[in-house]
Amino acid sequence: MDDIRLNVALLRRKVPNLTSAAKSIGIRPATVSNLCTGKIDLGKAEVRTLVGLATLANCSVDDLIIRGEKLNMIETKIKTLDFFAPLVKGGTTGLVARPGMGQVVILAELMHRFKESDYTTIFLLPTTNHPELEGTTELADIVTATIDETFSKLTSQNGDVIFISDKSFNVSSELLDLQERLVAERVQNITTILVDLSGEAVDEEMPYGPLETLWQLDADLATRHQYPAIHPIYSASSILEGIDLDQRHFNLRQRAQKLLRRYRELRSVVAVHGIEKIPAAELETYNLGERLEAYFTQPLFVAEAYTGQQGKAVSMSQTLQDVEHILDGKANHLSVEELRYRGNLVL
């Protein structure tokens, strides 16, 4: 079967209020979200779901399906992002978190890292004051204050652009209008990252509409200072449908998520009853999960002054090798503390 995926960009443009629209015709918003980010293989989607989405978008089912076109990822060298939910070049990524969980630090880190790349970062300031952005927006190459100014800056760039905006513009439909104008101008070199500084997105089913990538932060990881605190199960990316990733990455992600899903269940038991209540047969699962979770912590460059730890950049190929070693038990000689905030794994 040819590689197929949902035309998320078309869906974003055609159906601004997708959550309510999907509900009105009996489609669960979670189903739409999972199809967009690749959690549900498009080839396994119900025909009535695709027909319903095509009806909402006023297009044919064929228009809603992209065949054979490969997506490319933007490597951030942040292990947990690249491994669980890669940033899709030219797509839209949404960050979901409550205030104080580290989402602003992640934005700052990304802008810092992109300064050493061929990408230009443009940050559209939110309409309301957010003190937590102090020291962060300065890391952007270009800061804009209005939609019109943003449009002018986006259309004047010759190279690839990382565009960052707050959810408030998405709610007001100004962002959708901007995207329509960019489509009309045939501007295709923009990768969008949406953030919700209010923290309300956590309680919404599709806070940003259709997304190619979802980065959801985990309160439990943040509380335990396991940063960047990206949820390894709920975070997802359409690029992981296998369109542009080798089978090894896909399989390792499946293995890692299966392990971490069970580890998180066992961890709940340990928190209440102690580790002695874990069946002997599952003790290895718990120990491997604990090590893998620790490995996905990472020192960030923008936090060096606060943590005293030097920032680390880890390539995707190195991350895949490290995860494989941990899953195969080849890092069992290292303690959990030795794996935490260490960057790459050196055996």
Walk me through this protein's architecture.
The protein has 347 residues and is of the alpha/beta class. It has three domains: 64 residues, 434 Repressor (Amino-terminal Domain); 120 residues, P-loop containing nucleotide triphosphate hydrolases (Rossmann fold); 93 residues, Bovine Mitochondrial F1-atpase, Atp Synthase Beta Chain, Chain D, domain 3 (Bovine Mitochondrial F1-ATPase, ATP Synthase Beta Chain, Chain D, domain3). Helices cover 42% and strands 12% of the residues. It has 16 helices and eleven strands. The strands form three sheets. A seven-stranded mixed β-sheet has the order 7-6-8-9-5-10-11, sandwiched between helices. It has a two-stranded antiparallel ribbon with strand order 1-2. The protein has a two-stranded antiparallel ribbon with strand order 3-4. Helix 8 packs parallel to helix 10 and helix 12 crosses helix 13. 40% of the residues are buried. InterPro entries: ATPase_a/bsu_AS (IPR020003), ATPase_alpha/beta_chains (IPR050053), ATPase_F1/V1_b/a_C (IPR024034), P-loop_NTPase (IPR027417). One of its GO terms (cellular component) is proton-transporting ATP synthase complex.
